[in-house]
Every structure is written in C-alpha cells, then in structure tokens.
Amino acid sequence: MEQQFSLAYLSVINTPPPEMTYMAARAGYDFVSLRPINMGLPNEPDFSLASNKTLLRDTKRALRETGLEVLDIELARVADGIDPMTYEPEFEIAAELGARHVLSSIWSDDRSYSIEQFAKICDLAKQYNLTVELEYVPIASISNLADTLDILDAAQKDNAGLMIDIHHFHRAQDTIADLSKVPKELFRFVHLCDAPGEIPTDHDELVRIIREGRSYVGEGGIDVAGVINSIPTVPYSIELPNKEQADLLGYEEFARRCLVKAKEYFKKNSRSNQEINMR
Questions:
Q1: Which of 25, 41, 249, 272 suits a disulfide with 253, CB 3.0-4.6 Å?
Q2: How many structural domains are present in the chain?
Q3: The whole model's pTM is what?
Q4: What is the pLDDT of residues 172-182, one digit of tens each?
Q5: For 18-52, b where at least 16 C-beta lie within 10 A, e where not — what string?
C-alpha cells in the first residue's frame, strides 16, 4: 500500500473546512481530517457542516475541485453529560462527504458508562458506514494503550478501532513490544508527529506541547520509526500543531513542510521503503 497522508485539523487550527481542503491539496496531501463537531472550547470557531449550509456547500465544492477525500471527522467524545445522539447530524454529513472514520476519545472516569456510551457512538456511526477510532490522550480519562484496548474489548463493536497518536503513545510510556501485539485489523489510520523526548511533569507544559509545540517528524525525540514499523501501512494524518512554525511560515507553507519532512523521514526509516531499498 502506498503511503498516504491527511492534513489534520490541529495542524492548521481554526481554518475553515473549505480553506483547509484547498490548502491540503496545494500542499500535496491525499486527504483532509476535519473537525465539524464543536467541542465548546474557549474561542473555538463553530465549523458545524450540518447546521451551516453555506459552509457545507463550499466544503463540497472544495472536495470536488481538488479531488481530495475526507479521511475522518472529529471529535465524538465520550464525556459525562454528552448524549451520543447529538453527533448524528455530523455523522450523516460525514457520510455524505465520503468520510471513512470518526475519531473518538474518552473523558469520563466511569468505566461502565464509558463503554456504554462508546458502544452507542459505534452503533450510530455504523448506520452511516463509518468506523469509530478510539484515541487515548495523556490528559483524558483513557490515557494509555492498555486502557484503550480494554474499552475496545468490552464494547465488542466490529466498526471500532484503535487510533495511535505518536505523541500520546510516547507520553503514555507505552512500548513498541506492546504495540506489536495489537491485532492488525484495529488500525485504520495514525496521527503522525514528533515531539521533544523528555516527558513534561508540568500539566500546563504537557497541554502546551499537545496544542502548539510538537515537532516535525524526525526532529524530536520520539522513536517514530519504531511505531510506524510496528503497525500495518495505513493513512497517516499529520497532526503536528506548532504555533512558532505556523506563525513564521503561514499555515499553508507550514502544512507543506510537515508533509515534506514526513515523506523524507519515511523514505529513510519506514519498513516498506527499507525493504524496497534492499532489493
């Protein structure tokens, strides 16, 4: 399978879906990963495609004109007080746009509740031929590989999968050995980035790096090659927010550089390319 790349929302945060799509196409990406589900964060723009018909029309036009596809939409969180049914309008639009996956994460400390709600999200997504990829996040309730696999095993949904974010994998201190044991069918895409190797002990610094301080692939301290060579070849969604570089270069050039550096890294370090070079 040829390597394919998507531009993730956090890399160009606050960029509307149509503009993000054109930007991704000009930079050389194969997909876009959109965030039409509003999270209610301070100063977060509302890019709901289900409620904004003009935005939806312009997004459809951008996808049609560029030929790009939507890899996934985010973020269908499991959290106390959130009814999974509120995600249905965006799931319906995602299916209309040809999206493949829904990204989810868990922010409730109630395990039984989390399993039940995650299962509901999967059932809802299945009606629209979408898979649900569960991501663990260092600052969330489910924050490591073992606990994520526990939820997936308990939910027992055939359209549920595991989404590894390379930054989060490193921060959770998960191991390549454990990753290698995960059933290959659970992987459908990966969040690709790098970050400083030292794990912050300060919560605010951890959040800062997650939101705006990640590194170009190959320029941080994470064993990115170890991760990508332990899982099947899947699309790589570049989620690499770096405010300093984005402010310096502008979003489009920053997005292009993220992709160029990722491809350069893969050429030297991915298992598939190493095998080709040995022939």
A1: 249
A2: 1
A3: 0.94
A4: 999 999 999 99
A5: bebbbbbbebebbbbbbbbbeeeeeeeeebbbbeb
